[in-house]
TrEMBL record:
Family membership: Belongs to the SRR1 family.
A matching Pfam family: SRR1
Gene: Srrd
Source domain of life: Eukaryota
Protein's UniProt name: SRR1L protein
Gene Ontology cellular component list: cytoplasm; nucleus
Domain SRR1-like: 11-182
Length: 225
């Protein structure tokens, strides 16, 4: 938790909300349970208001995963957390409020959609993302594939600060390749004006390894990938 708090200690606007995507079936998956426990560590509990920020109570933390069962949804409610009412496909607007996005091991399209939805220097500067390393994505994908399928990740790389979570032998599969990302306003302003000109919504028509549950897939009765 300290690895997440440290980059935000000098922030002028600490997160006031939290959004969690892709947690998974924590009732039967130890990895998902550990990730849920870590999320709770980042929020202030009722006795010790000393976590990430006292501005992020559990009631302002919203989650979505199409795999959640009714019992899991009830358990999250008992913990004081909220469920998002629909599948946003990652397209969540920060709406002028500093927001922590907790997206451990999510598909690249979710990160790309999130960046697209908030594609302005002012909005990106209010975001912190705990999730798959952007540097790792850049290293593993051919540049032409990254720029074609995940163009918003590609364009924001030079405006991103990233710190990897420290490795722990007990949780190698739980938080491997996970980093804290934030977007300093000054770095964003140094990007070329052309970076901000293209704002077309991603479609992923040619993407071969798309890891995302689309709204229409759930409406059509398809299960989670």
């Amino acid at each position: 938790a300290g690895a997440v708090r440290a980059p935000l200690s000098g922030s002028a606007e600490p997160p006031a909300r939290c959004v969690c995507y892709g947690l998974g079936r924590f009732s039967g998956c130890p990895v998902a349970r550990a990730q849920l426990a870590f999320l709770l560590l980042l929020l202030p509990d009722r006795r010790f208001l000393r976590r990430l920020s006292p501005q992020v109570p559990p009631g302002r933390c919203s989650l979505f995963d199409p795999a959640f069962s009714a019992r899991e949804a009830a358990a999250l409610g008992h913990l004081g957390l909220r469920l998002l009412p629909e599948n946003e496909e990652g397209k969540h607007d920060v709406e002028g409020s500093a927001t922590l996005f907790y997206m451990v091991h999510c598909g690249k399209a979710l990160y790309n959609n999130l960046l697209w939805r908030n594609w302005s220097a002012g909005a990106l500067a209010r975001m912190v993302i705990v999730g798959n390393s952007f540097k790792g994505i850049e290293e593993r994908l051919l540049s032409r594939i990254l720029e074609r399928d995940y163009s918003y990740i590609a364009k924001v790389l030079k405006g991103t600060e990233e710190v990897a979570l420290p490795a722990h032998p007990r949780y190698l599969d739980t938080f491997n390749d996970t980093s804290v990302h934030w977007f300093p306003l000054q770095k964003l302003k140094e990007l070329s004006p052309e970076v901000w000109d293209f704002t077309e919504e991603p479609t992923y028509q040619d993407c071969e390894d798309l890891e995302i549950i689309r709204r229409e897939e759930r409406a059509g009765g398809h299960g989670p990938a």
